[in-house]
Amino acid sequence: MAENDWKARLGVVFSTNPDFQYTTDDEEAVETLPPAKQNLRVWLDRNHRGGKTVTLIKGFVGSEVDLKELAKELKNRCGVGGSAKDGEIIIQGAHRERVLEILLAKGYRAKGAGGN
């Protein structure tokens, strides 16, 4: 067994089944919808954030790479920090109107919702 073959097993140590085929739970690459087909929701949120207001963008359908790329552009254009994961972008601060302008200018279908 080569030095790095243990990594290829991904945790399977031994199986008594001679026909055993180890399969991983790798997700297939999610195809990112074009901006015109995205249906994004933008709103302000303060829940569970220590009283700090953030701008949430939900509803992105696509790969994590494309999500992070969009989040990076929004953060840069707003001049603030934030994060992106699980189809959701969090922008620090109350930037709902600015984010909506940016998304609409890029061709995304986006709607603003009321904030807390």
- N/C terminus separation: 58 Å
Look at the structure and give the mean pLDDT. 84
CATH architectural grouping:
2-Layer Sandwich
- H and E order: HEEHEEHE
* CATH homologous superfamily label: SUI1-like domain
Form type: elongated
Number of strands: 5
Number of helices: 3
How is the biggest beta sheet arranged? 5 strands, mixed
**How many domains in all?**
1
Tell me the Rg in angstroms: 20 Å
Helix fraction by DSSP (H/I, runs of at least 4): 25-40%
Q: Spans of 5+ residues with little confidence (pLDDT < 50)?
A: none
Q: Can you identify the CATH class?
A: Alpha Beta
- CATH fold field value: Translation Initiation Factor Eif1
Strand content: 15-25%
Strand order of the largest sheet: 3-4-2-1-5
Structural class: alpha+beta
List keywords for this structure.
116 residues; alpha+beta; Translation Initiation Factor Eif1; 5-stranded mixed beta sheet; 3 helices; 26% helix
